[in-house]
Amino acid sequence: LQGKISMMKQVNIEKVSYKQYSNSFLTTVALSLYFDSNESKTDFMSNLKKFATSYFNIDIKDEGEFEGIRITKEDKSIVFFLSLGSAMVEISGASYQNFNDSQLPLLTRLLDFSRKVAGVDTIKDISIRKLNTWDFKANGNNVPSLDWVYDKIFSKEFKESLSNNDLTEQESSISNFQKFIFEDGDYTMKLRTAYIRNTKNKDYTRLILDTECLSTVVSQPIDDIIEICKCMNKRMYDTFHWCVTDEVINMMNK
Q1: Distance from chain centroid for Cα 153
Q2: Where are the alpha helices (DSSP H) in the chain?
Q3: How far are the Cα atoms of 10, 13, 74, 119, 197 from residue 89, in angstroms, in the given order?
């Protein structure tokens, strides 16, 4: 019961004036659109081939049962996932600057895919997800404690909101996993954290902050999606500032 009460806690996220920081802890930014296409598989594949040639200069072969395609930039900084029911783009944190310069051009491409390939004029669901990570040096089996790491990175309000109750089986399998979910106007904010061994470098531990904003308004006109995503992105910016300490913001300024 206490876990459910925590999930429904009222949160006052203050609006923060936008600033582009010198440094970032972003690892990944993903934007996903979900829709119901009425196109037949034959028409969809025909449209997709034209779209892939025009937008990506690649040829698509219609082989076997189609579930979707993955298109990756050579340096893997940008990845597209396109299917009959969704369109998603993932950007590496190192390549991400801000919404207008980094995400907006790619969102425009997703919307063109939705119109020209999937043949839809409304978007059912929208998700923007951002992954931030902090690495800490470990000394053998002596790793920085969870409490110490949380005190360095997370604000008091955010720490008090996190819960490890009502976890799914998958969430329970992740080391030190906690989450906080709340409604924010037309959006649902999902905040997840974990403190794990760095899989690429065993000498470090890694603190993860996984934030996701979902639109709760169903079937929105495709012409409105850009402005909606801008609002969602700004709300995530405000929420990130609520989650972290002033020390984190100061490190981003350096």
Answers
A1: 19
A2: 2-7, 41-56, 104-116, 146-153, 156-161, 169-172, 225-243, 246-253
A3: 31, 27, 15, 19, 27
DSSP symbols for 166-192? S--HHHHTSTT-EEEEEEETTEEEEEE
Q: How far apart are CA 138 and CA 102, in angstroms?
A: 34
**What are the pLDDT digits (tens) for 164-216?**
988 888 998 898 999 999 998 899 999 999 999 876 777 888 999 999 999 98
Q: pTM, whole model, 2 decimals?
A: 0.91
Instruction: Render pLDDT for 138-155 as a digit per residue (tens, 0 to 9).
Output: 776 778 899 999 999 999
User: Are 235 and 187 spatial neighbours (Cβ–Cβ below 8 Å)?
Assistant: yes
Q: Degrees (nearest 5) of the Cα angle 53, 57, 58?
A: 75
